Amino acid sequence: MQRVIPLLIGAFLLAPPAISAQTQWEQQVLAQIRAAGQLFSVDGYEIRGDGHTGTLDNADSEDFSVMLESGVTYAFLGVCDEDCSDVDLSINDEYGELIDSDYQDDDVPVVEVTPQSTGRYTIHVYMADCTAEPCYYAVGTFASVAPANNEWEVQVEAQINTAGSLFSDEGYTQRREPYTGSLGQAGSHDFNVRLERGISYALLAVCDADCSDIDLMISDDKGVEVDSDYEDDDLPIVEVRPKRSGTYRVHVYMANCSNEPCYYGVGSFGKDQ
User: Fold this and answer.
1) Which residue segments constitute the domains of the chain, with CATH numbers given?
2) Is 104 exposed, middle or buried (0-12, 13-18, 19+ CB in 10 A)?
3) For 74-102, how does the pLDDT look when each residue is reduced to its tens digit (9 = 90+)?
4) What is the pLDDT of residues 59-78, one digit of tens each?
């Protein structure tokens, strides 16, 4: 989804005025969220809930948690009242790892995430510029209503599940839902995985019928390569035995894709050491 900040500014100017003096600022920010919903719907999103509201003094911040579903793309929009000219947002996963942030100098930040597993995520709100404390803010949640899977994603997920039955013969079990995506020829993508000490992991990548070569590499939290598989095939496997629990980085490289984009999946399998 393209960020729609320039359009939102115009929509907010048309937001209906508050009708209750007691809660006028809260109604003002919620009206902005509703106006934004009409714009997000153009990109296939629908609003979820009424929006999270609160107040913050200048340079203060607040966290709140949200439950997100695997495979659904979410966008979170922050807005604030007329006494605020800059509010910022970031989102972290359940392990505290930063997923996305928007610290631009504006009052309509947007962060996005497509969870690989269902769970709780943390939204961080920072009031960067408030001239009359406290300033009211709201955060709206928008979810993609497009189908979570297409036929190619289903294809690569089926390959991962088939591989799971083979890994089980070696004492491995699938540790999380497959990570799926699409890449053009020579394209690459990185994502984070949480690995636990005391478990041996094998990560397997697969790709669709238009892909004949895909590669994998995994590095630790300091960026040091742990293992890689750049062989000329479409079933790369990397392995790691973490000395300590932490976040590792998986790098996917689409070496040969005859009909772009090519869909891929990465499965994570583990067994006790």
Assistant:
1) 5-144 (2.60.120.380), 151-272 (2.60.120.380)
2) middle
3) 999 999 999 999 999 999 988 888 999 99
4) 999 999 998 887 788 999 99
Residue reference for tokens 């500014």: 9
CA distance 32 to 109: 13
**Residue 192 bridge partners (DSSP):** 249
**Burial class of 151 by CB neighbour count within 10 A (0 to 12, 13 to 18, 19+):** exposed
pLDDT of residue 109: 93
Closest by CA to 48, choosing from 137, 146, 145, is: 145
Distances (CA, A) of 8 to 3, 15, 113, 143, 204: 10, 10, 20, 17, 42
Structure token digits, residue 228: 């890689």
Q: What secondary structure letter does DSSP report for 243?
A: S
Nearest to 178 by CA among 44, 241, 269: 269
For 33-58, the three-class secondary structure string (H helix, E strand, C coil) is HHHHHHHHHHHCEEEEEEEEEEEECC
- Six-digit token string for 166: 């083979």
Integer Cα distance of 71 and 78 in angstroms: 23
Confirm whether pTM is higher than 0.85. Answer: no
